[in-house]
Specification:
It is a single chain. The chain is mainly alpha-helical. 64% of the residues lie in helices and 0% in strands. The chain is built from 5 helices and no strands. Helix 1 runs antiparallel to helix 2, helix 3 packs antiparallel against helix 4 and helix 3 packs parallel to helix 5. It starts with 10 loop residues before the first helix and ends in a 6-residue tail after the last helix.
Length: 122
């Protein structure tokens, strides 16, 4: 995914690319491939920034991905859309923290703790 111009992508293309990156990032997370995970994180951030920069902040197009069953997808979308709807983001993050017994539970609980202390993602 080198040299991608997100500015030229439609909203549907951005959502599909975001979905692909999050799922790839999930695999990197699970298999402890930190450098790959970090590269994917930067791509994910660039997609989110492109959505934010569009008229009326288009990050809401990611919200349907919260319904996906994959905990990493829920964690990413909840974080990346937090400022649009904090209550919704907390609800989905809490479901991961409450019902998972794997590395995702800790990540979700950590995010909730940070949010409780006043840190809010952009």
């Amino acid at each position: 995914m080198k040299n991608i111009s997100f500015k030229d992508m439609t909203l549907d293309e951005l959502v599909a690319t975001y979905e692909q990156i999050v799922m790839a990032q999930d695999q990197s997370f699970l298999f402890d491939k930190l450098s790959k995970f970090n590269k994917e994180f930067k791509i994910r951030e660039a997609i989110v920034e492109e959505l934010r920069s569009r008229p009326r902040d288009q990050r809401e197009v990611l919200a349907p991905l919260l319904e996906r069953r994959e905990p990493w997808m829920r964690i990413c979308v909840a974080s990346d859309t937090y400022s649009l709807n904090p209550e919704r983001s907390r609800r989905y993050m809490q479901t991961v923290a409450d019902y998972r017994f794997d590395p995702y539970k800790g990540r979700a609980a950590s995010s909730l703790g940070l949010w409780d202390m006043g840190y809010t993602p952009k």
